[in-house]
Amino acid sequence: DNNTAFTRSNSQAQRPFWSYPKKEHVARRTFFKTEYHNTLGNYGHNPRNILNHKSEKMENDVNDLTMGTTKATCHIPGYGGFLVKTDLNDKAIDHSKSNTSRQIMKNKVNLNENFNVKLPGYSGYKPM
Question: What residues contact 68, with CB distance under 8 A and at least 6 apart?
Fold first, then answer.
């Protein structure tokens, strides 16, 4: 018994408390919702019923694992920029979703100014 292990005298060497046998328990099967169940439904469910037949893409669910990643935003996969992870600031959420594109002409004008003529590691022909 675990209680008798504490009441014995400390003059003798004893087995460690963690090595005593523990009361057995049964692990029961629980039915958690998986990512597959969330997106496509349970067994026997027709996934085509989730989307409208005119929809172009399947929206990603925003949950604890996808906040602050490109899965919850409209950025390209592998985007290395800053993604806002917040539930409170509406302006920050709109910025992170990238639903509105940036001004294209401003970026194209700036591209010529920041173009690097000397590529690192390139030893091929460079016309003048």
Answer: 83, 84, 85, 96
d(CA 99, CA 108): 20
Between vectors from CA 99 to CA 93 and to CA 49, what angle results, nearest 5°? Answer: 100
Q: What's the CA gap between 104 and 117, in Å, rounded? A: 22
The Cα–Cα gap between 68 and 75 comes to: 11
Separation between Cα atoms, residue 77 and residue 62, nearest integer Å: 16
- Cβ atoms of 78 and 70 within 8 Å: the answer is yes
Q: How far apart are CA 65 and CA 85, in angstroms?
A: 11
Residue 32: per-residue pLDDT = 77
Q: Enumerate residues 6+ apart whose C-beta is below 8 A from 127.
A: none
User: Can you tell me whether residue 57 is helix, strand or coil?
Assistant: coil
Task: Decide if pLDDT at 128 tops 70.
Answer: no
